[in-house]
Design brief:
The protein is α+β, with helices and mostly antiparallel strands and 379 residues long. The protein is 25% helix and 29% strand. It is built from 8 helices and 19 strands. The strands form 3 sheets. Strands 1, 2, 9, 10, 11, 12, 18 and 19 form an 8-stranded mixed beta sheet that branches. A hairpin with a 2-residue loop joins strand 11 (181-185) and strand 12. The chain is globular, with a radius of gyration of 20 Å. The structure holds flavin-adenine dinucleotide. Flavin-adenine dinucleotide binds at residues 8-14, 31-33, 45, 47-49, 54-55, 170-171, 198-202, 206, 218, 220, 248, 265, 316-318, 339, 341, 343-347, 349. Flavin-adenine dinucleotide (FAD) binds next to helix 1, strand 3, strand 13 and strand 17.
């Protein structure tokens, strides 16, 4: 097969970029495996976090993340309608942050009706107890959560509908040739003029350069909880158990085994970054015992009346950059990258994919966010 652009990595950013490229009439192949059915034995590569839920919200930590989210969310309904795959559940979001008033202001620019709230309102309307003096914000629909597996499925479907090729396999090797690249794996080989690397935590392992990213091991805890429809998505700084500096949760969603679970995660204050060569071993664990204890304590403290059932845990990885923004740009001759979501890119993946796709157009950059914000840094 001979194509113009090979997109390596079929996570949320890669699948979005492939859709935008295919719908712009480019000849593309989107290459990446489905999520593993048995992570404990799978040899990789893994996505950042194999799970059914991610928070979505317009209000972001800064102007860049707010714009990326707002532009992506505005396209959710079109993606769902045309692909026939539902992935967005608009049940609101709460943020407990020192600068919550600034979040409200930033979100309002993009049409959000986010507002500041009081602890009593929060407890009465959602059952969440946050009364440690942190300013609180509530963002109504379209904030809520998305199903990342369904979003990737939707983007993949639209890529195929627009004439793109999809190879649900791993790329094992990339070889530079006089005219482009030979991209190969157990499935065979294709030739591509250019490459978009959207490989998440696995970064530029297939190439001879190293991106400036930090791979942060993270753990999530899922607790069975009947869904009363009142619990929104949540992110909170300085939660009661201080071994994590920040926590988030996704409201109860149904998992493939039929259980309905709330999922909580956070940022452990003390952790050691991991090398890409150790990622697979990390994904074969159940996560970090200290983080698990802290997450459970925080979940019980913030939802004091919730009858939590069986608990399970899982490891995952956040790919961070010094700037706190993803790397999107050209990293080598003929090789662009779009990765390092800094724990925030699921909701914003469609706009990140669109910006990455534009790199392959004549204009080269198509965003009012300055290109330097996303410039890939090599080490
Ligand atoms: C625990 C956790 C919770 C999160 N919660 C949220 C949230 O609530 N809201 C939010 O917006 N964001 C959230 N995020 C962040 C979000 O999930 C990531 O930013 C997003 O997944 C990044 O997308 P990506 O496409 O860059 O990478 P990934 O989703 O990691 O996808 C990369 C893909 O590349 C593939 N790949 C790698 N190497 C190869 C290869 N050689 N050949 C083929 N394929 C390859 C992998 O298999 C994978 O499918 C969370 C992240 C974590 C870890």
């Amino acid at each position: 097969m001979n194509i113009d652009i090979a997109i390596i990595g079929r996570g949320m950013i890669g699948a979005a970029a492939a859709r935008h490229l295919a719908e712009a009439g480019r000849s593309v192949a989107l290459i990446g495996p489905d999520e593993p059915s048995d992570p404990q034995t799978y040899q990789g590569p893994f996505a950042s976090h194999h799970d059914e839920g991610r928070i979505t919200r317009i209000a972001g930590r800064d102007e860049v993340w707010t714009e990326l989210a707002a532009r992506s969310i505005a396209r959710y309904s079109d993606i769902a309608a045309r692909s026939g795959v539902e992935f967005h559940f608009a049940r609101g979001m709460v943020a407990a942050y020192p600068d919550a008033p600034d979040w409200v202001t930033r979100a309002a620019i993009w049409g959000s009706e986010a507002k500041l709230i009081e602890p009593d309102w929060l407890r009465a309307n959602t059952g969440i107890a946050i009364d440690y003096g942190m300013p609180l914000m509530y963002e109504p629909a379209p904030a809520g959560h998305i199903d990342p597996l369904a979003l990737v499925a939707a983007q993949t479907t639209l890529t195929e509908m627009a004439g793109g090729s999809v190879i649900r396999e791993v790329v094992d090797s990339v070889r530079r040739t006089a005219t482009g690249f030979d991209v190969g794996g157990a499935w065979g080989t294709l030739t591509a003029s250019r490459i978009l690397l959207a490989t998440g935590a696995f970064g530029a392992d297939l190439f001879g350069f190293e991106l400036d990213v930090e791979r942060r091991p993270r753990t999530i805890l899922r607790a069975q909880l009947a869904d009363d429809g009142r619990i929104p998505s949540l992110i909170a700084m300085d939660p009661p158990d201080g071994r994590v500096e920040e926590i988030y949760w996704v409201p109860p969603v149904r998992y493939p085994d039929g259980s309905v679970c709330i999922k909580i995660g956070g940022n452990l204050k003390e952790f050691t970054p991991i090398a890409s060569s150790d990622l697979t071993d990390w994904f074969h664990t159940d996560g970090d015992p200290v983080e698990i204890e802290s997450l459970e304590a925080n979940l019980r403290a913030l939802l004091p009346d919730a009858p939590l059932g069986a608990i399970n845990t899982a490891p995952c990885v956040i790919t961070g950059t010094p700037s706190g923004h993803p790397h999107v740009g050209w990293a080598d001759d003929g090789v662009a990258v779009a990765l390092a979501g800094n724990g925030s890119a699921a909701k914003s993946s469609d706009e990140l994919g669109r910006i990455a796709a534009a790199l392959f157009s004549e204009a080269g950059w198509d965003s009012d966010i300055d290109q330097s914000v996303f410039a890939p840094q090599l080490t």
